[in-house]
Amino acid sequence: MTSVSTEDRLAVMALLAEHAYRNDHGLTDTLWELYGEKCRSEGPMGTMVGRDAIRQWGIRRLGNPSKVRHVLSNIRVFWSEGRLCATSYYVAFRDTHANAATPASVGEYHDTFEKVGDEWLLAERRVVPVFTNADAPRPVVASPEVAGTEDEGR
User: Which end of the chain has fewer surrounding CB within 10 Å, N or C?
Assistant: First the structure.
């Protein structure tokens, strides 16, 4: 197994923390900056392909005033088939749930990264819910109207 350098590990962990921060603090219209040009994101929010699809989703998400907080842990960074990858656990809390202190979803992020210049960016993100709270509404979901979006997902 090829070892991941401390520099690359820290860069990926910082990227993941920045993604969660922007998602949670009204900066979703800038999330696209953390993705590569031909990125792909799939999960409960739909399937989005390309930075523009991420950008459009982020702009739409700003229209929903609900609060969300993502807690990340167990970040595992590794090489797989010549690509830098990570898995991490997430717990998502939403104020639209009857008890906002009860998680809306618990699951894993399966991420693959690409290096652009000196910077690591997300190339692929797969959101894999493990436990979900059916009573917790989801914020704006990607739709076929969003350029580059393939489907509405869960």
Answer: N
Inter-CA distances, 25 with 31, 46, 123, Å: 11, 21, 23
Cα 90 to chain center, whole Å? Answer: 10
What are 62's two structure tokens? Answer: 């700003």
Amino acid at 58: G
What are the backbone dihedrals phi and psi of residue 88, each rounded to the nearest 5 degrees, phi first?
-150, 155
- At 74 the three-state DSSP class reads strand
How long is the chain?
154
Please work out, in degrees rounded to the nearest 5, the angle formed at the alpha carbon of residue 54 by the alpha carbons of 6 and 4.
15
For the segment 33-82, what is each residue's pLDDT rounded down to a tens digit?
999 999 999 998 889 999 999 999 999 999 988 899 999 999 999 999 99
Q: Could you tell me the end-to-end alpha-carbon distance of the chain, in angstroms, rounded to an integer?
A: 35
Task: Please say whether the dihedral angle defined by the alpha carbons of residues 36, 34, 83 and 92, taken in this order, is positive or negative.
Answer: negative
Structure tokens at 87: 């898995």
| CA 66 to the chain's CA centroid | 17
Tell me how far apart the alpha carbons of residues 88 and 73 are, in angstroms, rounded to a whole number. Answer: 6
